[in-house]
Write a structure and sequence with these properties.
Elements (H helix, E strand, L loop, with lengths): L28 E6 L12 E3 L14 E5 L5 E3 L5 E3 L13 E7 L5 E11 L14 E3 L20 E4 L8 E7 L8 E6 L11 E3 L5 E4 L10 E10 L9 E8 L7 E2 L3 E7 L7 E4 L2 E2 L12 E8 L8 E3 L5 E4 L11 E9 L10 E11 L7 E2 L3 E7 L5 E6 L1 E2 L11 E7 L6 E2 L9 E5 L10 E10 L14 E9 L6 E2 L4 E6 L7 E4 L2 E2 L9 E7 L5 E3 L5 E4 L14 E10 L6 E11 L7 E3 L2 E5 L6 E7 L11 E4 L4 H6 E5 L4 E6 L7 E10 L7 E11 L10 H8 L2 H37 L72 H14 L26 H4 L20 H7 L5
Parallel strand pairs: 1-7, 8-10, 9-15, 17-24, 26-33, 35-42, 44-50
Antiparallel strand pairs: 2-5, 3-6, 4-5, 6-7, 10-13, 11-14, 12-13, 14-15, 16-19, 18-22, 20-23, 21-22, 23-24, 25-28, 27-31, 29-32, 30-31, 32-33, 34-37, 36-40, 38-41, 39-40, 41-42, 43-45, 45-48, 46-49, 47-48, 49-50
Helix pairs in contact: 3-4
C-alpha cells in the first residue's frame, strides 16, 4: 500500500522527533501478508509479519509498551515485530484492521495507530501492475517566505528477506517527486550496494524511479544497507534534496547451531546428590539472536550407559547447564557417562528449527566409599632372633577405589600384641601391601612367638555413612627362631683398684663372660686382645687374671691412674660367637719415686746481688707421697755449704743463693738433698748445674753467647750462622790449598838425595810389616809436652767451663823449659803424606821409623809425693777445691777426723 500521511493533523500531536513526516508522529500502517502465509501447515504456531510497527519516543527516554487489540490472533513484541498467534485464513471480503497502542511506562500517556494486513500475491506470479508497489515521495519544498522551516521526512526502513529465490530484479519501492508532473526527471541511488562495493545489488529505473534488488541477500554477511535517493532534471540539476533509504535484510533461519566444542568433558564425584552441577555446554547460531531463528534450546538425546537409570542427568534448555537428577552415581560400577546433547533453534521447535549435536563425557570421580579389606583373616611369618630391618610377613588388602589415590592407599597400624614396639608395618607404595618389619632385636630366650593385631585404613577418611568392616583387621602370627648369640661380660667395663708395685704372678680378679643362649650348652674360652704394657695374663678356661710384670702407676700406658686391658670370650657354637670385655685397673700410688730438682741448670751473677735461684722439687708420686718437700745442701764437698745457701719458700719450692760476697765465673754443680713427705719418705741428691757469670747493672749475664741468644731473633741468628759457615768453608778451602802447596814442596824435598839432606832421614827397610797390629802406635809420644800453654800465661778471669774453680794451690817446683822443636810434627805429617803418595811404595801398610829422640824429659821430680819425709805435716785440704774427682783423695790425705 501507499503510505500517505494527512498533513492537516493538529500541531499538538507532533513531538520534537517525527516518525514519518514533519507534522505526523502516529503512522497508519498497512501490512500485507504473502499469499502462501494464509495456508500454513497445521503445526505452525506463529508467523512473522513485515514491516514492523516502528515507534520513536521523540526524545522522551521512558520505556514504551506496545499492545494490540486482537491478542488472540496477533502478538507484538517489544521491538515492534508482529507475529500471527495462530493459523489465519485469507478473507478477501473484508480487510483486517489491527490497532496498536503505545503506552509510556512513566506517564502512562498513550498513542494509537492502525496496522491493516492485506493480500499479497505470490512472489512467483508476476504482478499485474505497479499499483501495489510502495511509493516514496520526495518532500515538497515549502515557501521560502515562511518563517519556520519544517523538518525533512523520515523514510521508514525497507525490509527485504534474505535468501529470496527471485525472480530478479525484484522491485522494492518506487521513488517519486512532485516535480515529475511538470518536467522530466531522472532518479538515482548511491551508497554501498548501489554504486559502492558491493556494487550491483540494488538498481533503480532512472525514469520510473523503481528501486529493485538484483540478487539474493545474506543477513549474516550484511544486515542492512544505507542508500541515498537523488532526483535531478535532464540538465543534471538537483530538484529535490536527497533522501536516505535504509534497507534491512530480514533474517531467515538458514544457519544451524554450532557447538563451540564437539566433545565436552566434565566430572562429578560419585555419590553426589540430585541437583549437583556437572558442566555447561554452549553453542552459537549465526542467525539473528533477537528472533526465533537464533533462539536455541538444549536437550539430552541419549545417555550411555543407562545405569542405574536412563535419566541420571538433565540439562537447562536455555543455558546448557548439566546437573544430576538422580542418586546412585557409583564409580566402581559406572566410571563414565556419555551424553548426546542437541541444540535446536526456533526456540526448540522440532518441526521448523534447525539442530546440531555434541558429545558430553562425564567422568565419575572417586571418593573413599570403599574401605580396604584383608584378603585373609590370619597371616604368619618367622624371624631369627636379633635380626632387625627384615620383613617377616606381607599383608595383602583389596580396595575398590581408584588405585594410587588417597582413597586407595592403605595405612597399617598395629593395635595389639606388640607392647615393646618391636614391629612396624609400612606400606608398599606399588602393591599397597603391608610389610611387617622387625625394628628392634628380639631375644629368643625371652619371647618365642608374637601374635599381632593389624588394622588397615586409607590415607583419607571414609565418606559419610561408610563404616569399616571386620575384614579391615587381621591377625599376624610370628615365630622367633634361636641363633647362637655372642657371650657378654658383666659388668663391662669391670673396675678394680690395686696398689702399684704389685709383683708378677699376683692374682688380680676373675673376669668371665655369660652365654645368653640358655637352651644351648656351650663352653667359653678366654684370650687377651689388648694389653698395652703386657702386664696381664688370663686363664683360657676360668678367666682368672694374673700379673706377669710389676704394675707401675707412673708408666706412660697409665692415663689418669687407669690401665685398660681388653679380653675376649669365645663359645664353641656353630658358628662360634665371641664377645669382648674391658678390665680397668685403678692403680693406687705408693712412694716409689724419689724427688728431683727442676730446673737442673741455672745462671747466677758473680756478685751477691741479685744472687737467688728459684728451684722446684718434682716427684712422680702423688700426694701424700710427694710434697711438701724438704730441701738441704749436701755436706760434701765442704765448699758447697761455704759458698751456697738454700732456703725453702713453700712445700714445693726453694731458693738457692750465694753465701759469699764473690764467686769467680764458671760452672758449678750444687748437690741438693730433697726429701718427700711419704710414709717412709724417700730422699734423693740432685745436682743443680749453676753457671756463674759477670752481670750488667740489670742483673743479666754479659756473656757473649747469652747476649746473642737473648737479644737476637731466630732469623738473625740463622743469618749469622750462615755467614760463619761460609767463612769457615772459605778458610778451609784456603787451608787445603796451602796444604797441597806445602805437600808438593815437601814432596820435592823428599826426593832429594839422602846424602844431600842434612836432617835426620827416614830409613826404609825391606820389611814385610807386622800386619794391622803394627799400625797401632801413638804419634803423640813424639810431641813435646811443653808445647801446651801453661795456665800462668792465661789472662785473669778467663776460664774454660770444664775447669775446676780457681783457689789457692800449693806451689810446686817449676819444670825446666826444654827446646821447642816445633817442626817435628809438621815434618812427620809431611813425611807421612809423601809416603802415602809415593808411587814406588809397596801395596801394604808399613811402619815408618823416625830417628829423632828429642831433647830430654820436661817432667819435674815426683819425689815430693812419695819420698818426702814430712808428708804428714802437709795440708791437703786444697784437694776439696779441685772438684768431686779429688774428693776421695782429699778425704784420705786431708787429715780430718773422718
Amino acid at each position: 500500500p501507499v503510505r500517505r500521511w494527512p498533513p492537516s493533523l493538529p500541531p499538538s500531536l507532533c513531538p520534537q522527533n517525527p516518525l514519518w513526516a514533519a507534522r505526523v508522529c502516529l503512522p497508519v500502517v498497512y501490512i500485507r501478508f504473502p499469499q502462501d502465509c494464509f495456508y500454513p501447515p497445521p503445526q505452525q504456531i506463529s508467523m512473522f509479519l513485515s514491516p514492523p510497527v516502528d515507534f520513536l519516543d521523540c526524545g522522551r527516554g521512558a520505556p514504551v509498551r506496545m499492545e494490540c487489540n486482537n491478542p488472540s490472533d496477533f502478538r507484538i513484541e517489544a521491538d515492534g515485530v508482529v507475529y500471527a498467534a495462530r493459523s489465519l485464513q485469507r478473507s478477501p471480503q473484508h480487510a483486517l484492521v489491527l490497532l496498536v497502542k503505545a503506552i509510556d511506562g512513566t506517564t502512562q500517556q498513550q498513542w494509537t495507530t492502525q496496522a491493516r494486513p492485506s493480500h499479497v500475491p505470490d512472489a512467483s506470479v508476476p504482478p499485474a501492475g505497479n499499483t501495489d508497489l510502495m511509493e516514496i515521495s520526495f518532500p515538497s519544498r515549502r515557501n521560502s517566505q515562511l518563517k519556520r522551516m519544517k523538518r525533512d521526512w523520515v523514510i521508514p526502513p525497507i525490509n527485504v528477506p534474505e535468501n529470496s529465490r527471485g525472480p530478479f530484479p525484484q522491485e522494492l519501492v518506487r521513488i517519486r517527486s512532485d516535480h515529475d508532473k511538470s518536467r522530466a526527471l531522472r532518479y538515482s541511488v548511491t551508497g554501498p550496494g548501489a554504486d559502492q562495493p558491493p556494487t550491483g545489488i540494488f538498481i533503480i529505473d532512472p525514469i520510473s524511479g523503481e528501486l529493485s534488488v538484483n540478487k539474493p541477500l545474506d543477513r549474516e554477511h550484511i544486515s542492512n544497507f544505507h542508500l541515498r535517493a537523488h532526483a535531478v532534471d535532464l540538465n543534471g540539476n538537483q530538484v529535490e534534496n536527497p533522501i536516505d533509504i535504509v534497507i534491512n535484510v530480514i533474517d531467515m533461519n538458514d544457519n544451524r547451531p554450532e557447538f563451540t566444542h564437539q566433545i565436552w568433558n566434565g566430572t562429578v564425584p560419585e555419590g553426589s546428590k540430585p541437583g549437583t552441577f556437572v558442566m555447561t555446554v554452549t553453542s552459537v547460531d549465526k542467525d539473528d539472536p533477537k528472533t526465533a531463528n537464533g533462539m536455541l534450546r538444549y536437550k539430552i538425546l541419549s545417555q550411555t550407559p543407562e545405569s542405574p537409570t536412563s535419566n541420571m542427568f538433565t540439562i537447562n534448555n536455555k543455558t546448557g547447564g548439566i546437573i544430576t537428577v538422580a542418586a546412585g552415581l557409583d564409580r566402581e560400577k559406572v566410571p563414565q557417562y556419555t551424553l548426546i546433547i542437541q541444540a535446536t533453534d526456533m526456540e526448540g521447535n522440532p518441526m521448523y528449527g534447525l539442530s546440531n549435536t555434541a558429545t558430553a563425557v562425564i567422568r565419575i570421580t572417586d571418593v573413599n566409599d570403599n574401605p580396604p579389606e584383608f584378603t585373609a583373616e590370619m597371616f604368619s611369618g618367622e624371624v631369627r632372633e636379633n635380626r632387625v630391618n627384615v620383613i617377616v610377613a606381607n599383608l595383602t588388602v583389596t580396595d575398590k577405589d581408584q588405585p594410587n589415590t588417597p582413597a586407595w592407599n592403605a595405612v597399617y597400624k598395629i593395635t595389639g600384641g606388640d607392647s615393646t614396639g618391636r614391629f612396624s608395618v609400612p606400606t608398599d607404595p606399588t602393591t599397597n601391601e603391608g610389610l611387617v618389619t622387625v625394628v628392634k632385636p628380639i631375644d629368643y630366650e625371652t619371647s618365642r612367638t608374637f601374635v599381632l593385631t593389624v588394622e588397615a585404613k586409607n590415607e583419607v577418611p571414609l565418606a559419610r555413612g561408610i563404616h569399616y568392616p571386620h575384614l579391615s583387621t587381621a591377625t599376624v602370627s610370628i615365630r622367633v627362631m634361636d641363633e647362637n648369640e655372642s657371650p657378654y661380660f658383666e659388668p663391662n667395663p669391670k673396675l678394680i683398684k690395686l696398689e702399684e708395685g704389685l709383683m708378677p704372678e699376683s692374682a688380680l680378679t676373675i673376669f668371665t663372660a655369660q652365654d645368653p643362649d640358655r637352651f644351648m650348652r656351650q663352653k667359653i674360652t678366654y684370650s687377651k686382645l689388648s694389653d698395652p704394657a703386657n702386664w696381664l695374663r688370663i686363664d683360657p678356661n676360668t678367666g682368672r687374671i694374673t700379673t706377669i710384670a710389676t704394675l707401675d702407676r707412673e708408666s706412660s700406658y697409665v692415663k689418669n691412674n687407669l690401665y685398660n686391658a681388653t679380653f675376649m670370650g669365645l663359645d664353641d657354637g656353630k658358628p662360634p660367637a665371641s664377645g669382648t670385655g674391658t678390665l680397668q685397673i685403678y692403680l693406687l700410688d705408693i712412694n716409689d719415686n724419689a724427688p728431683k730438682v727442676f730446673p737442673q741448670e741455672a745462671e747466677i751473677c758473680e756478685k751477691p746481688e741479685p744472687n737467688a735461684i728459684n728451684i722446684t722439687a718434682v716427684d712422680g708420686d702423688l700426694n701424700p707421697n710427694a710434697g711438701p718437700f724438704a730441701f738441704e745442701l749436701a755436706h760434701r764437698p765442704f765448699d758447697v755449704r761455704r759458698n751456697w745457701t738454700i732456703t725453702r719458700i713453700s712445700g714445693d719450692h726453694a731458693q738457692v743463693g750465694l753465701k759469699i760476697g764473690f764467686l769467680e765465673s764458671g760452672i758449678y754443680e750444687i748437690p741438693i738433698i730433697i726429701t718427700d713427705s711419704g710414709n717412709l719418705p724417700m730422699s734423693n741428691t740432685s745436682y743443680l748445674r749453676v753457671k756463674v757469670c759477670q752481670c750488667d747493672i740489670n742483673g743479666d749475664c754479659t756473656d757473649q753467647q747469652h747476649i746473642m741468644a737473648a737479644g737476637l731473633g731466630t732469623g738473625a741468628i740463622i743469618a749469622i750462622l750462615l755467614c760463619i759457615i761460609i767463612l769457615l768453608i772459605l778458610v778451609l778451602l784456603f787451608v787445603v790449598w796451602m796444604k797441597r802447596r806445602d805437600k808438593e814442596r815437601q814432596a820435592k824435598q823428599l826426593l832429594i838425595d839422602p846424602e844431600d839432606d842434612v836432617r835426620d832421614n827416614i830409613l826404609k827397610y825391606d820389611e814385610e810389616g807386622g800386619g794391622e797390629e803394627d799400625q797401632d802406635y801413638d804419634l803423640s809420644q813424639l810431641q813435646q809436652p811443653d808445647t801446651l800453654e801453661p795456665d800462668a800465661i792465661k789472662p785473669v778471669g778467663i776460664r774454660r767451663l770444664d775447669e775446676r774453680p780457681l783457689h789457692p794451690e800449693p806451689q810446686y817446683p817449676m819444670r825446666s823449659a826444654a827446646p821447642h822443636p816445633g817442626d817435628i810434627g809438621d815434618f812427620i805429617n809431611e813425611g807421612l803424606k809423601a809416603a802415602d803418595n809415593d808411587p814406588t811404595a809397596p801395596p801394604y801398610d808399613s811402619l815408618l821409623v823416625f830417628d829423632y829422640e828429642g831433647s830430654g824429659s820436661t817432667a819435674g821430680s815426683l819425689s815430693s809425693l812419695n819420698s818426702s819425709s814430712s808428708g804428714g805435716d802437709q795440708d791437703y785440704d786444697y784437694l776439696n777445691d779441685w772438684g768431686p774427682r779429688f774428693r776421695k783423695l782429699a778425704d784420705m790425705y786431708g787429715g780430718c777426723d773422718d
